[in-house]
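Regression test attached.
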Amino acid sequence: MNEDTPVNDLSSSQRGISNTTIAVLIVLALIITIIGTLAVLDSTSSNVSTQRITTNVGRVSLQILPITDTSSNTSVAKNISG
Amino acid sequence: MEFSNKTLAWLVVGAIAIAMTGTILSINSLNMTGFVVVNTTGNASVSITTQTQLNFIVSALSFGSGSVNGSGGYNCTMYINKTTSPNIMQAGGCVGFNITNLGGVLTLENDGNTIINVTLNFTANATDFIGGGGGPNPAPQFMFSASENESGSCTSIHDTSWTTVVENVTQDICDGMNYVDTNDSLAVGLFVVLPSNTPQGSKTVTILAQGTG
């Protein structure tokens, strides 16, 4: 080793971990957390009963006819005297 | 106080360990399988899908065609329910009209495989459906009633006596309608009073039955 070169005499335990490593670890933590959260949410949704709705239609009808006036057909008795 | 990168890294590692532990515990609590199979026995399973289905198996009631004369209180009264079905009862000044309904009384059936609550909603009330009234004529009336068409079809049935139809208002008729084939139907009775001055023409009202399970 060249004596002019600065000597990095820090032990490995004293060396810092790069920010890149920390970023990777954080991303990993986020992924694991998201997977766990999704698993719980999925299990929750499967346990919630969904309200189901069904409909059907019926009909009521009638027809009102015009009233027929039958008074003109009424027979009238006549007394004929002669 | 400032944390060194190494301290931060250990914190992150700790967070990962906690997150993994939580995830593993969650997955185990869900009884999720498929990761490891060590069984030598076979399992057969069947999954029954919940089906909610409410149908009018008799969906049309026709009182038929006729008129109302001034005798008998200036009205024509007609009704049908489970007791009279398939006959339509008449009183007052009814001229013509049907005395029976094809298929009988309106009937709802739970054709699904789950217990449901049933409501009715009519598109018209007596005034809009029938009209007329005033003077010597009585006001028009339009009423319904609910009953078990098969015994044991409903845990809690409502509106078993004649109930005035309110337009576009949901009316609860049954809480807990059964789906077992021999105990799964309700009869919807209908009652009308036609004044003698009811406007002529064809008249129809729609009934929306809704089942919620």
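Expected vs. actual: identical. Helices of chain B lie at 5-29, 71-74, 126-129.
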